[in-house]
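Our preliminary data section would be incomplete without showing what the modeling component actually yields. Below, a chain of 451 amino acids is followed by its predicted structure, encoded as tokens that our downstream tools consume directly.
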Amino acid sequence: MSAQVFTLPDLGEGLTEAELVRWLVEVGDSIAVDAPVAEVETAKAMIEVPSPFAGVIAARHGAEGTTLTVGEPLISVDAGDSGAAESAVEQEQEQAGSGNVLIGYGTSGAAPSRRRRRGAARKNPVPATAAATAATAPVPAPAPVSLRNGERRGVQSPIVRQLARRGGVDLDALPGTGPDGLITRHDVEAARSRVGTAVPVAEPSPVAAPAPSSDVDGRTGLRIGTRVPLTGRRKAVSDKLTRSRSEIPEATTWVDVDATALVELRAQLRSRGDAPGILAMVARFVVAGLTRFPELNSRVDSEAGEITHLDGINLGIAAQTDRGLVVPAVRHAHRLGMRGLDTEIRRLTAAAREGSATAAELSSGSFTLNNYGVLGVDGSAAIINHPEAAILGMGRIIPRPWVVDGAVVPRQILQLSLVFDHRVCDGGTAGGFLRFVADAVESPASAMADL
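Predicted structure:
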């Protein structure tokens, strides 16, 4: 029987290409419908691509690190005898499918069936009476499963793999407590937390290393050390920043703010228990400012020749990750208080750094707050996150001499900078918004009473 060719599906969000980060199957592996076969990175997020076919992997098209466009072949699957080793229940599940969310192909119905490997089928079905007896028996706690020579475990989740890479844990050598030896997040965290115990260390990924080059730069005459392909998320960031600079007539305004009262207020809240972070407190003031100056929470539709003011605020939080700068957004931030914003900001930044943030979370912002102070800098003229209309940056808070009531005293000073699209408003509106946020930072108790 001829092999079925599965092409890279439509990934949604207008995306037309993805970088092939990691293969999750080998040629000769048996897979079920909806089994993940590859991990790809788009401009928005990391995605595991499931197969719509069951069978044996006949070929893999493309090497890790290459960029594929939608419609290019991804794998070839020989569906010759794929279902012979499954029970009737498993076959029904595969026919029903799982309704996976990728566009352009997919199955629908029940939950996905378990991925299987060659030779992993059950040969001795359990009689119905024995199954009924087993159903009433207490279920023992899962124990770590060791793999036999040549046997491969199921695919781990992206978060588990990310934790393992960061912790230097070799997943192939780590026993798993999940079903069929699947390694869970708890397994990786336990391996990382062992004190005085040797933990298997994974080899560094060859994909991440730039390729050496022997070329010579024509302008300087210097040898080119490496060439780093501009692909995936880095390419998307490059395109967005270039478009922002070329399309938006931006202007920048900034102010130094005495944040002493804000620092003291947070210290008081911490003494009574958990307290929102400084970023969340400033974020709440930003949201309040945007409700008073909605021009900054808008979009410019050049084709329609109009400015679109948005009803509601999705506050983007710029986050630096191993794979570049991303901006996950707190949806409906105008409905949240400081504690709610703090919870969402921490969740989204953690997800962005782990690579588990969704495409919707990474592309739905209406205004961006950039805390570049965590990088140890005082100020910056940021680039607007196209197609938004403005971005507010905050630097580090450091003690500086400040004049209070005619005397020079040490105070905790924070610089705020606002970059805005001059098409949506003039300096008066931008300055009014920036001054509102600055006043709230300087007198947080009064500002919170008014919110």
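The first helix runs from residue 88 to 96. The chain is about 25% helix and 25% strand. Preliminary results of this kind motivate Aim 1 of the renewal.
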